[in-house]
Amino acid sequence: VTALQSGRASTVTSGSGSSGDGFIDYRLIFSQGCVPMAISTVDGRFLDCNSLFSHFSGYSVEELRERSIFTLTHPEDMQRTFGAVSELLAAAPTSTRTITKRCTMKTGIQRVTTSMSLVRDARGDPAFFVCAVLKIVAEQPQPSLQQMHPPQSMMGMGVPGVASAYMPP
Fold first, then answer.
1. Distance of alpha carbon 24 from its chain centroid, rounded?
2. Nearest-angstrom CA–CA distance, 8 and 166
3. Checking CA distances to 148, which of 44, 128, 133, 167 falls within 20 to 30 Å?
4. Angle at 114 between CA 72 and CA 31, to 5 degrees
5. Residue 90: helix, strand or coil by DSSP?
């Protein structure tokens, strides 16, 4: 993607298209990709997202354009997010940052692992961020006492060589 025009990523050509005409529509890769993805300005405002990101966040593209990556970030994870953005702005052009953080989605708080890349223009200046949700991190339920210490009658069941306290009638 070489430019952002009116809030949309422009189409880019490449030398090897599957149709043989040398054209690949990168917009289709973004919109039909298999991971939730969004594009934001350098200050974090959302410009666009694919349907998976919209579905995951619960927000329409229009609603997301009124928000930023920072408004979706849980307050306790804000410093880490600002740190990743700052590192990308100072890093080499092909750098990415991956962080696990909580996001405030329309449906509630969700813990996710995200990857961000900074796309630079032809002069090397920061143009926009591409953000992808790599993994939804399930919250681990705290084990109950029963899960931690099974009842005596269950010990050894199904394990060869271990005597079981449970004796069937």
1. 25
2. 66
3. 167
4. 85
5. helix
Distance, CA of 130 to CA of 119 (rounded, Å):
7
Q: How far is CA 96 from the centre of its chain?
A: 13
Q: Which residues contact 15 (CB under 8 A, 6 or more apart)?
A: 22
In angstroms, the first-to-last Cα distance of the chain is 72
pLDDT per position as a tens digit, 34-56 = 999 999 999 999 999 999 999 99
Alpha-carbon 156 to chain mean position: 42
Structure tokens at 137: 């991190």
d(CA 46, CA 66): 7
Q: Whole-model pTM?
A: 0.68
One-letter amino acid for residue 121 of the chain: D
Beta bridge partners of 130: 39, 117
Listed residue (149, 132, 49, 55) closest to 97, CA to CA: 132
- Token pair for residue 46? 């959302």
